[in-house]
């Protein structure tokens, strides 16, 4: 077992609520502080520990992600363009699930749960049953509702809603809203990967202070903050060079640095780092420092996400799920059939869909062969013939050049042994 794995197992076995420190782990397990630090950050990303300001890092109970990102009943009113007939005090409550009241009332009790939403038409008995079981009701078709039902909704504090849409349309709209939430939830955010409670220097610090902090942490890049904890600069080992200890940090720091918010997508942050040539970005809330994100943290979060089951599908995922992948000597090969979701209005595979497949094939080639995460620099593609529906196609992506900071791949799309499209992809490597 590696040192890293041994530390992770040690952390998992700690009692919930136990305080953890880099020095403590290093001493207890006879490893370097750098190894202990990296393990703690991995444990934080995996949800086993949490770092709180002025408290420190503690062992927490690992919580599994919720299966559904819940809508509130107030949001349901908006998305179905409805109105509230009763139970206004319960509008803030979350929707746990919804069901359509298309069955006999005697069959409904086994399906209606507290916090759920019954979508039903002009059926007073079903409306009352749902409210009595502490579920909300959405009456479709614009039907009027009996005053007895409205009074009951107010009494149990569960929303009684109305919409002019039919039941099928309402269910479709709500399902689409939930689906969009699921897709958004899958996007890795900076808050999922950042280092909280980071080391920093104040605006009145000196080069000598930087050297002390470097010796203590072995980190060479630090955000600089003012007396209100607002980020005003970044200082790195390249900035200090051979300067004397008494030189003020404010004279050598890079001023007005790029910053991120906790809700910024990690992928966007990683691309910023590549394009701007930086390896650390401060994370701010109301302009005040709350964390930092490094390239290594960003890559780890993106790799962690790529192994998770997808709850909702993006356009790329819908297209790529139609293909199987095989690793080759110098790249990868995709095989699959053109699908209805890939068609243009004229009934042949759209250039956009084919370009999506080819671009993703190029990225997968770098990932599979060189274990590299990349971002697109340029993409040149040529088409020679159309491809019809339900046709077998093959995509071959080969790495033709790779350096420390960039690489190129050639991608060929083949149908019935003939070349349909060719592309050259130039990508920048996200350095660790």
Binned, the helix content reads 25-40%
Radius of gyration, CA atoms, in whole angstroms: 28 Å
Number of domains: 4
Shape assignment: globular
Q: Mind telling me the CATH superfamily name of the largest domain?
A: CBS-domain
Sheet with most strands: strand arrangement: 16-17-19-20-21-18
Helix/strand structural class: alpha+beta
> What is the CATH class of the largest domain?
Alpha Beta
Q: Specify the number of helices.
A: 14
Give the SSE layout.
Layout: H1 3-13, E1 19-20, H2 22-29, H3 33-46, E2 49-52, E3 56-59, H4 73-79, E4 83-86, E5 98-100, E6 117-120, H5 124-132, E7 136-139, H6 147-156, E8 160-162, H7 167-186, H8 190-193, E9 195-196, E10 201-202, H9 207-217, E11 221-225, E12 231-236, H10 237-240, E13 254-255, H11 266-276, E14 280-285, E15 288-294, H12 295-306, H13 315-320, E16 323-327, E17 331-337, H14 351-370, E18 374-383, E19 392-402, E20 406-415, E21 418-429
Parallel strand pairs: 5-6, 6-7, 7-8, 10-11
Antiparallel strand pairs: 1-3, 2-3, 4-8, 9-15, 11-12, 12-13, 14-15, 16-17, 17-19, 18-21, 19-20, 20-21
Helix pairs in contact: 1-3, 2-3, 5-6, 11-12
What do you see in this structure?
This protein has helices spanning 3-13, 22-29, 33-46, 73-79, 124-132, 147-156, 167-186, 190-193, 207-217, 237-240, 266-276, 295-306, 315-320, 351-370, and strands at residues 19-20, 49-52, 56-59, 83-86, 98-100, 117-120, 136-139, 160-162, 195-196, 201-202, 221-225, 231-236, 254-255, 280-285, 288-294, 323-327, 331-337, 374-383, 392-402, 406-415, 418-429. The protein is α+β, with helices and mostly antiparallel strands. The chain folds into four domains: 1-64, Winged helix-like DNA-binding domain superfamily/Winged helix DNA-binding domain (Arc Repressor Mutant, subunit A, Orthogonal Bundle), CATH 1.10.10.10; 73-186, HprK N-terminal domain-like (Udp-n-acetylmuramoylalanyl-d-glutamate--2,6- Diaminopimelate Ligase, Chain: A, domain 1), CATH 3.40.1390.20; 188-308, Roll (CBS-domain); 315-429, Hotdog Thioesterase (Thiol Ester Dehydrase, Chain A), CATH 3.10.129. The strands form five sheets. It has a six-stranded antiparallel beta sheet with strand order 16-17-19-20-21-18, with helices on one face. Helix 9 (207-217) links the parallel strand 10 and strand 11. Helix 1 packs across helix 3. The longest helix has 20 residues, at 167-186. It is globular, with a radius of gyration of 28 Å. 29% of the residues are buried.
